[in-house]
Every structure is written in C-alpha cells, then in structure tokens.
Amino acid sequence: MNRRRPMGLALLLLLFAVVGYYVLWVQPNQARVVEAFPVGLIAGIFVCTRRRAWPVMAVLVLALSTGLYMANGRELLVALAWSVGACAGAWVAATAVTRGGTHRPALLTERDLTHFITGGFLAALLSALLITAFNEPLQVSTPQVVFPAVFLPHFASYLVLLPHFMGRPRFPGVAPLSERILQWVLTVLYTLVAFSPLNLGPSIAFAIIPFLGWSALRAPMRETIVQLLVVGTIAHSMTIQGLGPFATGDDTTSTRSELLGAGVGFFVIACALTAIPFALAVGVQRRESWQARREQAKVQQLVHSASGIAIIGTDRTGHIDMFNPGAQSVLGYSAEEAIGRQPSMFHSQAEIERLAAKLGIQPRFDLVALELANPKYAGFDVEFIRKDGSVRTLQLSISRMLDASGRTIGFVSTGEDVTRRVQQARALEDALAAERLAVENLREIDQVKDAFVSGVSHELRTPITSILGYLEMLEEGGFGPMQQGQVQALGRVKGNSRRLLSLIDDLLTLSRIQDGSLAVATCQLDLRDVVTGAHEEMTPGLQAAGIEFSCSVPDEEVFVVGDEERLGRVLVNLLGNAAKFTDRLGKVDLTLSVEGGTAVVAVRDTGIGIPSSDQAKLFDRFFRSSVAHERAIQGSGLGLSIARAIVETHGGRIDVESGEGVGSTFRVRLPLEGQEPVGVQDQLAELGDPTYDDEPGDVLAS
Length: 702
What we know:
Layout: H1 4-25, H2 39-48, H3 54-71, H4 76-98, H5 110-138, H6 143-161, H7 177-194, H8 202-206, H9 209-218, H10 221-240, H11 254-305, E1 309-315, E2 320-323, H12 325-331, H13 335-338, H14 349-359, H15 365-372, E3 380-385, E4 391-402, E5 408-417, H16 419-475, H17 484-515, E6 523-526, H18 527-544, E7 548-552, E8 559-562, H19 564-580, E9 587-595, E10 598-605, H20 612-615, H21 626-630, H22 639-649, E11 653-659, E12 663-671, H23 678-686, H24 696-701
Parallel strand pairs: 7-9
Antiparallel strand pairs: 1-2, 1-5, 3-4, 4-5, 6-8, 9-10, 10-12, 11-12
Helix pairs in contact: 1-2, 1-3, 2-4, 2-6, 3-4, 4-5, 5-6, 6-11, 7-9, 7-10, 9-11, 10-11, 14-15, 16-17, 17-22, 18-19, 19-22
C-alpha cells in the first residue's frame, strides 16, 4: 500500500493536469470566468494524501493549476488568483468529508451525505468569494457574473467527482444485467438528444433526472455515480461545442455566455443532488434489509437449534405462529398441530386458577398471560399439559415483541423443562417436613428425659445422703465395734456412694443449666483464694496417686465478680480429670495469671492427652473420649460440659490444647472486675480498640 500510494498520487496529478488543460483549452472565447475546472479532482487528491502532507500537496497543486491557467492564455495574477480559490475550496471539501482528517471519507450514512454536500457547498462558496474578491483589482468581469460563474461549476465538480474517492455501499443492485444495459443505453441516448442541435430547451435536459433515479433505485450506487459523471461529461462537452440548451454562439455576449456556462453547472448539480441521496438511501435500505435478513436467519437458527428450550411465539391476536423443536420435544405436539391455535391448549383450568391466585388477578388465561409478560415474573414455574396428558413444569419467561412505533405485535415465551427439579424440590420439602417433625418429637423426648433425670436425681439424692449418714455412724462405732475387714468394706461402699452422689449433683446441675435456673452468686472475690482452695482440696488425692502437683498465683489480688463455690467446682473438675488421665510419676500444674483485662487459670498435665478427633466434642454432655473408653477410666461425661456452662455464665471462656501422648492444658479465662466479658474483649481487640492495644502510643499518634 505504501509503495503504491506515491504512484497513485502521481497518476491523479497527471489526470488532473490532462483534464484541467482540456477544460481550459476548450473554453469558449466569450467566457473568461466560467469553466468546468476539475476542483473535485483536487479534493480527491487531498483525500488520498496523508493529512500531514496536505500543505506540500497544496503547494504542488497550486503551482500546477497556475501553470495550466497560464498555458491557456491567462495572465499570471489571474491564474494565481483562480488557482488559490480552487485549492482553498478543495481543502475545505476534503476536510469536510474526512471530518478533519479523523475519519475515512465515506458515503454510507445520512451523516456522511450531510458532510459531503455541506462540504462541497462551502468549498464552492469559498472559492467563489475569493475569486470574486480577487476579481475586484483584476477587473476580469463584473462581480454579479463572477460569483455564479465560479460557484455553480465548482459545486457541480465536487458533487460529480469527489464521490469516486469515498467509500460507498457495496451491495449489488436488484436489476438484472439486461435491465441495467437498457437503462444505460436510454440514459446516454436521452442525454445526447437533450443536448443535440435540436435545442429542445432546458426543461427537456432536466428530464434526464428520472433516468438517473431509475439507476439509483435498481443499480449499485457505484454505477449510479459513474453514470452521473458520464451525463455531466456529455452535457459539458456538447455545450462547449455549441450544442444543447446552454450553448453559446459567436453573437452571444460575454455576460450571457458566462451565465449560460453556469447553467450547465446548475443542471449537473440538480442531477447530482437527486441521484446521490436517492442512491444512498436505497443502499442504506438494502444494507438494513440484508442485516435484518441475516439477523432473522440467525434468530431462526438459534430458535431451531435450542432443542432443550421450548420457544413458542404468538401474533398480536394470540395465535401461535412459532413452535420450535424444543417445544415439540417437551410438549409432544408437532409444529403443524400447534400453529394457529391458542396457547391455552397447554394449560388446565386448575393451573390458570393457581397462577391467578398467586398473581392476584382474575382466573382468565389472557389476563394471566399478560401479567406474566411483566419482566418481574421472568422465570415463573408454570405447569403444561403434554399431548399424552402428562404434566410438565416449565420455568417460563414471556416477552413482548414491539414494532418500530412501540406497539405490541406479538409475544414470545421461552420455557425450560424443570419438572425433575420441581419433583426433587417437593421431595426435599416433604423430607424436611418429616425431619422437622422428627426433631420436634426428639425435642419432646429430650424434655421428657431431662424431666425424668431431674426427678429421679432429686428422689435418689435423699436416700443416698441418708445412706452416707448411716455409713459414717457405722464407721464411728455408733452401732458397735467393727472388725478391720468390715471397716474396709464400709469405706468402699462409702466411696461408691459419694461417687453416686456426685453424679446425681452433676445431673441436677445439668438440669438447672438446661432450664436456665442455675444460680450464680455475683460478688467480688479474689481468684487467688479459689485457686489455692482447689489446690488444697485436690493435693491429698494427687499425692496419693503419685502425681507431682504444683500451684502458682501472682502476688497481687486478682479480683473478679462471680460465685466462689461454682468456680471452685470448675477447677476441681479440671484437676480431677487431670488426675484421672495422668499416670503415676506424672505432673499437674495449676497456675493463675493476668493477661490484659482477663484472668487466666491454666491446668496443665503430662498425661495421655486427648486425640484431635475428640476435641471438637469434648465439652458436649455425656461425651467421653476414645482414650477413656480404651482404658476403662470411670466418668459420666458431664464434668467438662458443666464447667463450660459455669464459666460462660461468668462471662468467660474455657478452651483446651492437647495432643495424644503429650498431655493437655485447659485454660479458664474470666473477665477482671469492671471489664467486659471475654468475647467482647476479643472483638474489640480485633477492631483495634485502644483499650486493648499493646502500643497505645501508636493509636494516639494515629
């Protein structure tokens, strides 16, 4: 392309030189101003030149034009003035069709046509004004003659020549070759007759316009533009030969000769302003028609290829006019059986009433269909009746089809068969309902069980307490002296009774926790007293088991608000678990520390540890780890759940770190007196509350 551009521009310049010399050479002697100077070719040269090279090309064309004028007998100043006017106008015309050099010149839309005609008009007007102004000192002719004698031929030249340098619709014409040949022959013959020596008058010449309209309507736009050029060339050539309605003779005055020459330009302008817009409108219509046919074919292809989607179209009267293969597959009807019938054939009256009740309208099919066409109801589940009588559920969407004026011309409904999904959803709903009923029954059973456990625990606690009392009286000799074996047996009975009493207490505590009646005293206490009390209570048992037991508390008071007895029971439960799961010669540590606004009590042991798979359920009631089952370690599985409930009622939290074979660490976190609960403290710390920031200076600085 880059190699051919200089050659193409050179050929254009050569063509301009030949045509320009010819039109000036054949100019009648009486006409000093009017001429068919090819300014349209100059504009075309600018269009074909890169924008940045326009100034250089303008100088070159100006020099060439001046030379052409001088070669045909014009004085230097006249030649230069006429050349400046021609080049300035051509620059304006090229700028208009390229829209400042940012668009490729084209005649494809109404906007392109507006730029083309406006640009040609302004270019011819500029040339006429400049040459008229230059004519004042040169006195070539009167201004009344110079202006039309320049404006009309220049405007005609732009209209006839410039379209050949612009893009046009490439759609073929609709006329067969024989008709196009006939149209060409008739157009050329009529032009020759209109400009023949018969001198039939200007009105006959203007009658050529219907022939050009014939071409614009039936032939490609390119052919119409070429035909317009041929008509203009014939008209100009015969006129300068003294033929036709605009010819001049030897006795014609100079002014009349100038005006008659301008008449040829007016004739060409009339032909161009009729043929070019008509040809463009026809080309645009052909393009839109082709695009519409292509889109229609694409839509038809999509509709017929959507085998899994039922697509049903209706006309404005509500009769089916489209029934795609997907609809045939889903509903069992052929297209011939469905087209022309009403869509209500696919719905039962019960379904219409169900839909109407949901939509809040009267149970009529037409009203239901119109309401479902509202976009907010897209994807509505609707039941359809197949040809075989079975029911299918389609997820339906209905859309209106509108014409250019916005009137409804029909409806299109698309439906996806979701019968299986609906059946599964209904089965799932039934299963969920059954599950909810089962859960409710289990809840009732659980409540009965809890009430039973609570009642039995209350009933058992009194006799066991009485048993323990009589056992103590027997040990003290209240019923007479006892032998050593009897004392040992009583000790075992007493220990089992105490364990049973402890289990009953745990069950009662659990019952109170579940019904929310667990009483917790709220008074200020020093947590160090609770820790040391638990240490003193558990030391004998741990030492007897051969376990090293240590306790560490800070020197300063650790005040919390809570129930000393309940918190002591938590620590005793944790220490009891540590003792049960730690072998002889093991170690248990009980420590109290303060972290920010939280008191932390930690119970560490070097026992068998807790498997990670059991830790998630460790605080559930009645849960016992797999290690406890394997080693047959006694326990009810209630101690940790009760401990967590007591800690949480104090606004605290209990957590565990453990691993099988490496021991366990239980931490009880309680808020200090005047502090928020532990969970609230953690949330504030995550949000960056300065109260809990390790570096408050940074917070203040920020």
